[in-house]
Fold each of these.
Amino acid sequence: MTTTTHPTLARLVEKQMRNWELARSQKPASPEERAAPVRDFLSISYGIGSGGDCIAARLADALRWPLFDKAILQEMAGNDDVRRRLYESIDQRDLSWFEEIGRSLGQEEFHRNDYFHRLVTTVLAIARRGPAVFLGRATDLILPRRHGFRVRFMRSRNECIAAHARRQRLDRDTAREEIEEIERDREKFVTNHFHVDARDPARFDLIVNLDAFSDDQALALVLGARLTHLADRASDR
C-alpha cells in the first residue's frame, strides 16, 4: 500500500533516505551502534499553540539531526518503497525485537491495525538508522524507555488559543474548538493503542512551561538537560 502525498513531503523523505544511505556507505556503524536497540533520539510532545513544534525544529538544527513530524512519518509509513529501503538494514535480531515491542503494545491491536503497525515499525527502523528528533505521534511510548530523551512543551490554555488563532487566522472560539478536538484525537490515539493515561506526566523526562521561558531559554534548557540525562545514564551502567 503506497499512499499519495504532497510532492514536497516525498522530496523530504527521499533526501533523508539518500543521506542515510550515503552516511552508511561512508561510515559503517560501529559494533556498539549495531548492538544498541536504537540510536540516540529526542521525542517531543507539545500542546497545540504552545510553540513546541517550532522549538523542536530548532533542536533538530542545533543537534544536526533529522526531524520527523506527523506528516513525514505518515508519508514514510504509507510508502511501500520507502519502508522496503528502511528495512534493508534490519537483521533477524531487529525483527525479533520489533515483535517484542509489538507484544508490549498489545499483540492483537498491533497486528490488526495496519496503520499502527506500519507507524511503529517505521519509527523503530528510523531510530535504528541514526540519531533523530521525533515530533508527536506518541513516539515516546513506541521507543524503548531506557533510551533517548523525552520532552513535553506546554503553555497556558489562553496563550495556546491566542497563538493558534493567530497562526491559523481564526477567531478565538474556533481556535479553542480546534485545539479541544485535536487533544481529544491525540488522547484517543494514546489510550486505544498504548492503554495508558495520555496526560500522565511520567511519560516525559522533562516538561517545559513556555509561559516561563523564552524559546531561546527553552532550547538551552532541553539541550543541557539532555546532556545531564545522558551522563546520569552512563554512570548507572
Amino acid sequence: MKKALVFVFAGLAMIASAVSYAGGDAEKGKALAASCAACHGAEGVSTNPDWPNLAGQGAGYLAKQLYDYRTDKRINAVMNGMAKGIASDEDVEHIAAYFASLPAATGEAEEEMVEEGTLIYKGGKTSTKIAACASCHGPTGSGVEAAKFPKLAGQHSKYIAAQLKAFRSGERANDMNQMMRDVAKRMSDTDIEKVAGYIAGLQD
C-alpha cells in the first residue's frame, strides 16, 4: 500500500510541475520531422529494433525527451546533435505533435516471454520489490499523457530492454524522482527480457 501511494504522489507531482507541450501543430511538424525518418521511419515506425517507434507516442513525452536531449539531461551521441539542431522550442512541440498524431505501431509478444512477463508487468515482483509496470503505463501499455508516462504498447522489445538496462546502470537518468531507476535496479537481466518481450505485444 505504501509503495502504491509513493507512485501516486510522484505521479501527481509530475503533473503539477509539468510544462505543457500540447500546443504543437502536427502539419508544421511533418515537414520539420523529415530528417527523423532515416532512423524512426517515414510514419514514425522504426525498422531497426535499436531505435524506438515514435508513432502514436504522447506529445508531451516526446517533447520532454527532445528537450532533455537538447540540454544534455539525456545522452545519446546521435540524438543530442539532432535535437540541438532543431531551430526552436516551438519546432520541438510541432515535431512532437506530428509523431503523436500518427497511427501507433503494433507488435507481437515473444511467446516464451509472455507468462512471466505478464506477471511482472501487471503485478510486479514482490520477492525483489519490483513495482508493476501497469501502475504507471496502464494495463494495455497506453501510458499517461498528462504525466508524460510513455506509451509502451507495440514498442520494440530490444529497445525497451536497452532502456531498462540504461536506467538500471544510471546511464539514463532523466526520469523524475528516479522512479524508473528505482524500479530497474531491482530487475535482473531475465526480468528485463521477459517483461520487454511481453510489452512488445501489448495493444493499446
Amino acid sequence: MNYYDELIGQIDELIENGEDREAERLIRNELSMPYVPRDIEEKLNGLLHDLIQKNSLPASLSMEQIEEYLFQDDLHQLMAVSQLADRNLRNCIDLCDRYLKSDGNPNAKAYLLLSLIFQEIDADLVLKRGEEQIPFNPSELIPPENSEGYRICHEILSERFLKEPSMLKLAEELLYKEALLALPHLIDGKEGKDLALKIASYLEKAFE
C-alpha cells in the first residue's frame, strides 16, 4: 500500500464515520500540493464534489439552527461548529459550555475548543470526555501546534522522514489530529517524544 492508497482509505473511513469536515480538510490539503498524480487528483476532486453536494448548507445558519444542529448527529454538529466558530463566541458562552458538557462528537468539540482558544475567551468552561469532566479557561491556553511537545514531536518526525516527504506529510496530519483531540491538554516534552515514536511506528507498519 502506498501513500495515496493510505490517504484515500483514510478519507473514505472519515466519510463513513461522519467526519466530513476532516475528510474535506485532508482532500483540500492534498490538492494544494505541487504534484498530485492525475488519477489521484480526479479521485480527490470526485470525493470533494460529493462532500460539497452532501453537505450543502444555507450561507448562514441562524443561532436557533446552530443550537438545534449542535445536539443532532455528528455531521450536523460539525456543520454547526463550523458556523459557530465564525461568530463572536463571547456572545455564545452559555451555548458553548452546554455543548462541551454534552455527549457530543469529539472532533466537533475539539474544533469549537480551538476556536475558543483563538478568540481568547476568558471563561471557566468544562469539557466532557467520556466520564471525565475537564475544567479549563480558553484564554489560558495556546493553540496545540505552539506547545513544546508538539514542536518536539514535529522535529523528531521531520528528521525521521527527512527523505520521505509523503510520509512526513501524513505524519504531520496524524500529529495535528492527536494534538487537537487532546485539548484542552497540551502535549509536553516527554509526551511529544512518545507520540513521535507512536506515529512513526504506526506509519512504518502500515507501509511495510
